[in-house]
């Protein structure tokens, strides 16, 4: 299932994700995964259900292999490379002078922004979580890079629940359900076509 989360800046999209992952505790109501109240299990267990790909990619000084493995510290070399293949990162990695053993410096300053984002996707893929959160993972990229990254994200989203936080509504057009939130709460929900037909808040954003 693919869900989209839309709304103006400050509406609470990121807060909602933090609540899902139990970085914040809820003051009322229930959040359940597969029918299990997340408050009934250890917090680390909840965190293990999620991986995130963010707009701003964080990489550390170390090899490409170690940066991907950060998503699952006990991953084998084969699992790391399989994740890179899934993320469409394997080709560019193998073209580098030392391949997977290429050292990254200064948050991956020796790579392009698109390449850094592919490594972030590979890191999420190696963790292989049941729920993937994409927080405007392509918004800082040029059109060519965005098409390539979008293809990788589609592969990453197969056979798992995906939640996409969108500022550009094109990234959630194909979602199974889109939830539009404002500071007052949920304003609208439905598919892209259903929300356009309602001619409400979502349609106004989209037509802008």
Question: How does this model look, in words?
Answer:
- This protein is 38% helix and 20% strand.
- The protein contains nine helices and ten strands.
- The strands form three sheets. Strands 4-7-8-1-9-10 form a six-stranded mixed sheet, with helices on both faces. Strands 2-3 form a two-stranded antiparallel ribbon. It has a two-stranded antiparallel sheet with strand order 5-6.
- Helix 4 crosses helix 6, helix 6 runs parallel beside helix 7 and helix 8 crosses helix 9.
- The radius of gyration is 18 Å and the shape is globular.
- The two termini are 27 Å apart.
- The model has no long low-confidence stretch (mean pLDDT 88).
Can you lay out the helices and strands and say which pair or pack?
Blueprint: E1 2-6, H1 13-20, E2 32-33, E3 36-37, H2 43-47, E4 50-54, E5 62-63, H3 64-69, H4 77-86, H5 90-95, E6 103-104, H6 113-127, E7 131-135, H7 143-157, E8 161-166, E9 177-182, E10 185-190, H8 192-198, H9 201-207
Parallel strand pairs: 1-8, 1-9, 4-7, 7-8
Antiparallel strand pairs: 2-3, 5-6, 9-10
Helix pairs in contact: 4-6, 6-7, 8-9
């Amino acid at each position: 299932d693919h869900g989209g989360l839309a709304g103006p800046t400050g509406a609470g999209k990121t807060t909602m994700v933090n609540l899902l992952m139990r970085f914040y505790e809820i003051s009322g109501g229930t959040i359940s995964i597969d029918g299990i109240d997340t408050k009934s299990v250890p917090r680390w267990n909840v965190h293990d259900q999620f991986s995130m790909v963010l707009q701003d990619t964080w990489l550390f000084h170390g090899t490409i292999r170690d940066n991907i493995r950060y998503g699952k510290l006990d991953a084998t070399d084969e699992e790391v490379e399989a994740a890179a293949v899934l993320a469409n990162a394997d080709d560019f990695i193998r073209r580098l002078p030392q391949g997977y053993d290429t050292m990254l410096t200064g948050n991956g300053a020796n790579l392009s922004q698109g390449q850094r984002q592919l490594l972030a996707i590979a890191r999420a893929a190696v963790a292989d979580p049941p729920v993937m959160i994409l927080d405007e993972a392509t918004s800082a990229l040029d059109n060519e890079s965005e098409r390539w990254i979008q293809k990788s994200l589609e592969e990453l989203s197969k056979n798992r629940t995906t939640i996409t936080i969108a500022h550009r509504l094109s990234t959630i057009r194909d979602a199974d359900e889109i939830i539009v939130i404002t500071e007052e709460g949920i304003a609208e929900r439905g598919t892209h076509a259903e929300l356009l037909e309602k001619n409400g808040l979502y349609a106004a954003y989209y037509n802008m």
